[in-house]
Write a structure and sequence with these properties.
By secondary structure, this protein is mainly α. 66% of the residues lie in helices and 0% in strands. The protein has helices at residues 2-15, 21-30, 41-54, 61-70, 82-96, 101-112, 123-132, 140-153, 159-174, 183-203.
């Protein structure tokens, strides 16, 4: 927990909070749940690395980072309100420690932006969405492992139905004019992401 603790401690200092090791332990426990294969602490670590590489584009980097820590904290594949429940947890944490309502609202909406069902409304939301979708533009081998991990998280769904629904999800992304809003991620990942999506859809036919 060393690196995670050090990072979390710096984030708490940025907000002017105490260390809140109990909250960190709760988050790490959530990301270690047995039904998770992709939505794990490694996903959060990867998101934070991408944030580090693009932090100069952030208006409120601490808020984005806190949202990343919480954005998949609640993850039950059979439920459709995971982002909302995760956003509520983040909001409750901030409210408990007397953050301003403006900060609470922004972090709530940052987490909700990871539903990926509507355009981001702020630059920071767009940046967080780009970070969350960075896996789409990973190397072909990493993306293949991502697809396998998602299937494991939905192993209770019959394959014929999973194949149909997964194809719909991937096609929705591929139909977008651009997958990444910020130029940095567009230049870095867009071409590979479209290749990955096209290949994955082909495998589901």
């Amino acid at each position: 927990m060393g690196i995670a603790f050090e990072r979390w401690q710096r984030l708490m200092q940025a907000f002017g909070f105490e260390q809140h090791e109990k909250t960190l332990s709760s988050l790490l426990a959530a990301y270690s749940e047995k039904h998770r294969y992709y939505h794990t602490a490694e996903h959060i670590a990867a998101c934070l690395r991408h944030l580090d590489s693009a932090v100069k584009f952030a208006q409120a980097p601490a808020e984005i980072e806190l949202a990343l820590w919480f954005h998949d904290a609640i993850y039950v594949p059979r439920k459709s309100d995971n982002e909302y429940q995760s956003a509520k947890w983040a909001s409750a944490f901030l409210h408990q420690h007397r953050a301003s309502q403006e900060v609470i609202d922004r972090v709530f909406h940052l987490v909700m932006a990871t539903q990926h069902n509507s355009p981001a409304s702020t630059s920071d939301e767009a940046l967080l969405v780009d970070i969350d979708l960075s896996i789409l533009g990973a190397s072909s081998s990493v993306f293949a492992n991502f697809e396998k991990a998602i299937r494991k998280e939905y192993k209770w769904v019959p394959y014929f139905l999973y194949k149909k629904k997964r194809k719909e999800v991937l096609e929705q992304f591929l139909r977008r004019k651009r997958l990444y809003t910020h130029r940095y991620f567009f230049d870095l990942l867009e071409e590979q992401a479209r290749s990955n999506l096209t290949h994955a859809i082909g495998n589901l036919l």
